[in-house]
Amino acid sequence: KEESKQHANEDKDKKRVWKKSLLLFIPLRLGLEKLNLEYMSGILHCLEMKHSIGIIGGKPQRSLYFVGYQRDHLFYLDPHYVFEYPSSLSSSSSSFSGTSDIPFTCKTIQSLHISQLDPCMALGFFIRDQLDFDLFWNQCLLFSTLHSFPIFQVGEQMPTLPDLFPTLAHNTLSYPEDPSPHSQLHPTFEDSEWEIL
């Protein structure tokens, strides 16, 4: 019996292991009108993570691709800057010969102070396989413990409101006394900068 249980567990583990790559985007809103500066250290930490491929975000009405930082400035690429189509890349060939005189590098390094960042953004991560995912998961668990206000958290199951905000859930939530179709069905918070999705 013990041997058959062991084989069943091994088969289960083999089925769980996957080898395909995963491109993961985590959409976030870190403030209402402007970025809540409590999240600055978390944003910068995400850019340092091994699996990070950058952050999609920017200024209001202008999306940018952030790839790194120095102190409080984020370095970005602007996807709205258009290059000429290189003549050496023909429709019959899928490879680029690299003989074109057209430059594909930025003439200047563009940066944005983190306080000017729009609160809506998406973190990007590239995970190669199951083993890489396990490493990513452990980094995310560590990430949650390093920041007073982590910008995202991971867990085995969906957390309840008291799990997320133990003191907030008991002290500052208020529900309408007379629930009607026109009243709020969701609790309200005293601090409007925080948002539960």
TrEMBL record:
It is found in: Cytoplasm. GO terms for molecular function: cysteine-type endopeptidase activity; protein-phosphatidylethanolamide deconjugating activity. The keyword Transmembrane helix does not apply. One of its GO terms (biological process) is mitophagy. It is an enzyme of class 3 (hydrolase). Residues 5-138 form the Peptidase C54 catalytic domain. It holds the Pfam family Peptidase_C54. GO terms for cellular component: cytoplasm. Its EC number is 3.4.22.-. It catalyses: [protein]-C-terminal L-amino acid-glycyl-phosphatidylethanolamide + H2O = [protein]-C-terminal L-amino acid-glycine + a 1,2-diacyl-sn-glycero-3-phosphoethanolamine. Keywords: Autophagy, Cytoplasm, Hydrolase, Protease, Protein transport, Thiol protease, Transport. Belongs to the peptidase C54 family. Cysteine protease that plays a key role in autophagy by mediating both proteolytic activation and delipidation of ATG8 family proteins. This is Cysteine protease. It comes from Reticulomyxa filosa. The lineage of its organism: Eukaryota, Sar, Rhizaria, Retaria, Foraminifera.
